[in-house]
Automatic annotation (TrEMBL):
Residues 1-17 have a biased composition (Gly residues). Residues 62-245 form the RecA family profile domain. The keyword Cell inner membrane does not apply. It holds the Pfam family Rad51. This is RecA family profile 1 domain-containing protein.
Length: 302
């Protein structure tokens, strides 16, 4: 598994990422041009007009779910992370958001569902934790995994690709290159296509540009949202992002990124963790099929 440094450099050179994507970094005086190039056109976004039967058929036949491996969350969401949709997990620090991401990535690898692309914005990706989760999973019902433990772990770890990215321009670059690679059918491992895109955390990239030195920060945030939802829908991916909490006044907290971002995720979960415990609570804030306010307990294995 390869991890490549993300973020915008000062030169116009490029690096090759862990999934073989050629990445380019624009000079700072070209940032606005880069942003405009990565904004999807109206034609790309609309694509075609779907009637009700087309949408129903697509939802029932193509848009399946990817289990996270955390029983409580999977039960709450009706099976897991739905393909074609963007799911957000939000919560305070140390509530278990990254653990949900790591378990989701590991479970997709173990169940041989496809390639996982993990975009790490805060150095939270832990390959040793991934290995521990995989080693602790029962693989007796999985075909093709009658290998020695070390060889089996190596095979599974190769299907999880980690990229480090530390600013919004690096994110635009990676997402653009990912879309190009998906269109040319290049993002594969062992014949499997990418099935899950994880960004932990998206707020680390977006919060600094909102209301700061970037006057177009909010439009850049919406551009990222449109690209993510377009990738999810057109390539049948599950997209999982994490967000942090901010003060809402009077001692209350709310998800970061404001009202503009609030409308973006198809599914929004807030999680909390009991003090000095691995027992967590997940509550539905938003869902395309479920009522808000549904709650469940789940355990993060140690």
């Amino acid at each position: 598994m390869a991890a490549a440094g993300g973020g915008g450099g000062s030169g116009g050179g490029g690096t090759t990422s862990g999934c073989g994507l050629k990445r380019r970094y624009a000079p700072r005086d070209q940032e606005e041009e880069t942003m405009n190039q990565d904004q999807p056109s109206k034609e790309d976004w609309c694509g075609r007009i779907w009637n009700g039967m087309d949408l129903l058929k697509d939802a029932t036949e193509n848009k399946h779910v990817l289990p996270t491996g955390l029983e409580g969350i999977d039960t709450l969401l009706g099976g897991g992370l739905r393909q074609g949709q963007l799911t957000e997990v939000t919560g305070p620090s140390s509530s278990g958001k990254t653990q949900v991401c790591l378990h989701s990535a590991s479970h997709a690898a173990v169940k041989h569902m496809g390639v996982v692309m993990y975009l790490d914005t805060s150095n939270s990706f832990s390959p040793s934790r991934i290995a521990t989760i995989i080693d602790g999973t029962n693989l007796s019902d999985q075909r093709g995994f009658d290998l020695p433990p070390k060889e089996r772990l190596k095979t599974l770890m190769k299907s999880i690709i980690c990229e480090s990215v530390f600013d919004i321009f690096g994110m635009f670059d990676i997402l653009h290159q990912l879309e190009v690679s998906l269109l040319s059918d290049k993002v594969k491992s062992g014949g499997k296509k990418i099935c899950l895109l994880i960004i932990d955390s998206i707020s680390s990239l977006l919060a600094p540009i909102i209301g700061g030195k970037y006057p177009q920060g909010r439009s850049m945030m919406i551009s990222v949202a449109m690209i993510l939802k377009k990738l999810a829908y057109e390539h049948n991916l599950s997209v999982l992002v994490t967000n942090h909490m901010v003060s809402a006044g009077n001692g209350a907290v709310k998800p970061a990124l404001g009202e503009s971002w609030k409308a973006v995720p198809h599914v929004r979960l807030v999680i909390s963790r009991e003090h000095d415990s691995n027992i967590c609570t997940a509550t539905v804030l938003k869902h395309t099929q479920l009522a808000s306010g549904r709650t469940t307990k789940f355990v993060i294995p140690s």
